[in-house]
């Protein structure tokens, strides 16, 4: 406890393990052992003498349905934070990468109330005050569909604006071998430089074919012209970083392998979205 009070932190940023909340997982929430570190921090907020003024948390879409969310919001309300919840996607910022995530912003500026609500019905926002964002479409069941509603929006920038200019030699390590194209080409998400979307890049990119990120077909018509080693490649780590909003001066240490770079980026977050939220949290919320 003394250690955390000694830090005297103004801001906590948190991106706790997402496995307890993913749609593909068991969705055990607070009962999952991987959520215990986050539960510790939630409990800690009530005990700190010097609480952080600001909190910013990111997690996968699905966290908003968990019991961990309810536990967190009760604690925040009880110790004097007001908070806002968002479900946002980089596509809304005209960036051609789909990565829907849950974000929570909290600010300590009211006395502890000592009592909390039993339930916190969904009140998620898809727009940020003072920021121009593309609004996702609502499906027939009222559910917001980010990907389908924004994928081809004309305001989203084309993929080509985020690509590197690679020489034929520099592109060789990123070409997809014929065996992979033959066996798994049909499950890849394929985009062209003119497209306005890419799928979420995960730490398994290049290692697994399905659901780990898009591949790039440089010529021809997707679905009509065959994919070959010469016209199809993976996005480079630099290109993935560009799509995730990392600045041009960002780079990995020379000792970082390409594979490690993909894994680190896949475990990262959208810098563009978080930077926007951070500015709003500190200056306007």
TrEMBL record:
GO terms for molecular function: methyltransferase activity. GO terms for biological process: methylation. InterPro entries: C5-MTase, C5_MeTfrase, C5_meth_CS, SAM-dependent_MTases_sf. The active site is at residue 18. PROSITE patterns: C5_MTASE_2 (PS00095), SAM_MT_C5 (PS51679). Keywords: Methyltransferase, S-adenosyl-L-methionine, Transferase. One of its GO terms (cellular component) is nucleus. The keyword Disulfide bond does not apply. Its EC number is 2.1.1.204. Belongs to the class I-like SAM-binding methyltransferase superfamily. C5-methyltransferase family. This is tRNA (cytosine(38)-C(5))-methyltransferase.
